[in-house]
Design a protein that fits this description.
By secondary structure, the chain is of the alpha+beta class. It has 2 helices and 9 strands; from the N terminus they run E-E-E-E-E-E-E-E-E-H-H. The radius of gyration is 39 Å and the shape is elongated.
């Protein structure tokens, strides 16, 4: 998520490069100032070169506070999602309703003016994003591996549960058989003990 206003810091993070046809996509482009304390202004331009072509087309420009779509193929589909003040460091744009024809190379250009104490300094920074628009989203390898591990874990837990149930059943059965054996032995001992019967008769 990109936010505007006061920045506690700036980190240059590469944009994602895979999008899904018919969806929207956030093209990221970040250019941090070397010295945060120096006031500055920046104009951000975006260019597009389709796959198999040599030339770039100028498709979008942001010069605070105005955002302009400059190419008929992107008209109404590009929105500014970067810094909302003149000192632009995040130059992200959002492209909606992507098609296969939107695959290609996108170049963002920061034209920055630094207002130093004695003079102005101009600086230009360019970055490129290779975007591939897919018919459907491709699952990441990590997600596939995680799902496989999840199923393996479920199977292992089920086997462990079966083993525990079998062990408990055998243990309970063994204890039941031992109790029955002790009861039978005790009853047999009473039948075979004549002294106990004689004592009972004498008592009567």
């Amino acid at each position: 998520m990109f936010m505007s206003g006061c920045w506690g810091g700036c980190a240059e993070v590469d944009s994602l490069t895979e999008a899904v046809e018919g969806k929207g996509f956030l093209l990221g482009c970040i250019s941090c100032k070397k010295r945060e304390e120096v006031p500055a202004e920046a104009v951000v331009d975006w260019f597009f070169r389709p796959q198999g072509h040599d030339n770039y087309s100028h498709i979008f420009q942001y010069e605070h506070p105005t955002a302009r779509s400059l190419h008929p193929g992107f008209d109404g589909r590009v929105a500014w999602r970067g810094t909302q003040d003149p000192d632009v460091q995040i130059g992200a744009i959002f492209i909606s309703n992507l098609t296969a024809n939107d695959s290609g190379t996108y170049r963002c250009r920061f034209q920055r003016t630094l207002f130093l104490s004695l003079y102005k300094q101009q600086a230009i920074v360019e970055k490129e994003v290779e975007l591939q628009v897919l018919a459907e989203a491709q699952r990441e390898v990590t997600a596939v591996v995680a799902e496989i591990l999840m199923y393996v874990l479920i199977v292992v837990l089920q086997l462990w549960l079966i083993l525990v149930l079998v062990y408990c059943y055998k243990k309970i059965s063994a204890e039941q058989e031992a109790r029955e054996a002790r009861s039978a032995l005790k009853a047999q001992t009473k039948l075979l003990d004549p002294d106990e019967d004689c004592d009972a008769i004498k008592t009567e």
